[in-house]
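Re-running the complex after MR caught last week's input typo. The corrected sequence lines follow. Everything else is unchanged.
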Amino acid sequence: MTKYIIKRLIAMMITLFIIISLSFFAIRLIPGDIAGEGSSPIIREALIQRYHLDKSLGEQYAIFIKNFLSFDFGESITLYPRRPVFAIIIDKIPLTLQLNLFSLALTIPVGLACGIIAALRKNTIVDHAISTMVVFNVSVPSFIFASILQYIFAYKLGWFPFLLELDSNFSLSKFVSMILPILALSFGGIATITRYMRAELFEALNSEYMLLSKSKGLSQTQSTLRHAIRNSFIPLCNIIIPMFMGLLGGSMVVENIFGIPGIGSLAAGSIQTSDYYLTIAVLFFYSLIGLISMLLVDISYGIVDPRIRMGGKSNE
Amino acid sequence: MSMKRKLLILLLGSTMMVTACSQGTANNDVKTENNTSTESEEFTGPKDYRSWTTSMSTFNPHMYTNSKAFSNLGTFVAAMASSDGSNQLTFVPHHASELPTSSDGGTTWTIKIRDGLTWNDGTPLNAATYEYSMKMLLDPKLVNKNAVYMFDTVVVKGAKDYYAGNISWEDVGVKLINDNELQIVLEYPATDLDFFTSLGSLIWPVKEDLYEATMNEDRTSTTYATTLDTTPSAGMFTLTEWITEGHDVHVVNENDPLVKEGYVHLDSINRRYISSSATRSEMFFKNELDQHSLSGDEYTQYKNDPRANPTLSPHVWGYFVNGASENKIMQSQDFRNALHYATPRETICEDVYVLYPSTPYMISTGIYVGDPISGGEYYRDTAPAKAIEEKWATNPDKALELFNKAYEENGGTPVTVEYIYFEGQEDQKRQAEVLQESLENLFGKDRFTLALRAVPPAAAYDLYRSGDYDLGLGVRLANVFNPWATLNVWTSDYADKYITGFENEEFDELQFESVYGSLVNDIKGKGEALARMEELLLEYGAFVPVMQNDNTVMYHERMELSTTEYLPFIGYSTNQLDIISAP
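Corrected-run output:
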């Protein structure tokens, strides 16, 4: 397993290197003006020189890679002038993570419960109700949920605040202010997990090992809990772990609606303002998350189902 | 491991992460400033709750993008609404002890700084502080964007050369006479108004020790004023809380000269960055925000509401017209003028944007000619400007006549013109479609086609620079009191031109004389020059004006504005408003 992980980590670093190299060239091809529209030509010229944009693309790339390998990710040019890009991302992660952890804490149990109930009560009115909820949640984007929730519960009823409270200390009022964004972020995830869980569990319930377990004397409940549900979890690793890692990416629209200064809008903002180094850093960050989540998924298979072993040589 | 233990570990892990996140936020962002004397007090007086549509990513006065954000810093001069309720703009000395005075015909300026000014931690603030700030602003290694204020409307002697690294600081026209006096030498004479609205109110002090401490080793960058800890205050308000892109809190500074003189009535300003217009609107109508800019739909509903206050934008949006395009029809002045007369600006403004007035002219109604204190008027109220408005009003008949002429000269073959608008914006798309339908119907679909092309705004401006376009939406920004200076973008040798083919010696001469030459102090002459410059641009057809992006802002009834009329440069001077009842 250790050897396998080391191999994967090396492959990950090579992939990251390729990604940032491609990002560098792709971003340079996007038209834009680092000085901002209407700015003085003298200022524009000076900024172009400062960020080596007057040099050839090859020279720029060499400078960028040299700095990158010495962990100098550069400074923000336009969005957060002169702030180190790494510091910007690090600053934004805690708030995004905090909100999304709560969202996940709601999404996973509710999604699993709905999926299990729907599978156990397949083709009943309960199953139909849950399936309708799933279709609705999958179809409606999170920003629509966010707007509707805010309109009803903050504007009309006044039960919750419009915006996320930005107090540094975690308090009850802060938690209350997080409820609407948490709900808006959760609906889609709940639907996804419910759909997977229902399908996997239904298949497991009709499998032969369930028949065997019951013939060995286990009750329906015992068979379901000990065998069917556990086996249904294996494919769920494929969605729950990336979902967890994806939380770090935040949600631009939900963050905009609830006034959350999270990481969600960084990518779009940096591209729009030609903030080259920040864009590359954000892409690097997202790539890192993606690659780590893929690695964790692969490793998790072996943990959830001991029959699956990674990196071991075949005995055949 | 039993299921219970696994669950317990999971629960503990989650709790630790949530706690860590909240601590991380605390450590990074929200810190109550230690070096302020006004921290953590329970406010009993009027608080103003505002929203921002553009985030505050830095309070570094050398890098900022929103000058209105600087409630925490002062300048030499402050533009204020007169405190006698006369709805009059006035310039009052802020950090200066008296209004700056000029000699040598307006090229040498003397600024006396008040005694006893301090930063919020008690450190003295004097003329040397300002000299240091200007030196750092122009520092060639730091490449500060706002250095432009030293050589834009008024040009400080040697400022450009120092910024380019060609001369030493001693050769720049900024001289420290003593701790309370600065002398600034300009390359060209400037009026009081130009000096007050540029150097006088856009050069902010920086705190030297903090600025140096936040500088990197090779002195090419500083993180000054990027966090609350590195943001000192010395203005009408003190910054006490700040989360980047989140919120900021400013508490009134009782030691500030203008606060002492009674210009400020607020105890604090609490601002929150809210990018969603729907959220801002709901919060305003729920009494959770004190002011709100109306969107188009809201404007229809609330334009006659007594809480609605119209503003005047100095900028006119329209279409850049490339007379140097390879598309032959674009080279025809008749065709370009036909585009002007045919553009359905009234329909676009009424049906698409709703909020914005249509403009057949290039100089907005927000532009002021002369000195609003000693005498002047809005440019569009002058006789020459009115004549231009009348002459260049939308006129489909004239447009068709001009088009027919250009069409025949073009060989009578069907013509296609490409129109560029900004992608991802529904309003832009709709107005493009209105323009397309209107022009094609007027000129004849068998003779004229308007091909629509959506591109990102930055890409569109790049195309205007390269000249690889026919017709494209955009704006050139204008200065309220000095439109001549911002018309430099149309001069022949401007370094960052959008290619339209417009080059005119008379225009270049009028622009130079109005900004730097014989017309600088001649208000009447400058007004006439402005009208002539506008006429020259319209005649060539370099730009088809469409609308000016005026806003309407709603203020709650509980807010008492310091001026009931919109004043050029300061609008409704919202830092001076009073709140007369509880929300």
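None of the earlier attempt is carried over here. The domain at 89-274 of chain A is CATH 1.10.3720.10 (MetI-like fold). Chain A has a mean pLDDT of 84.
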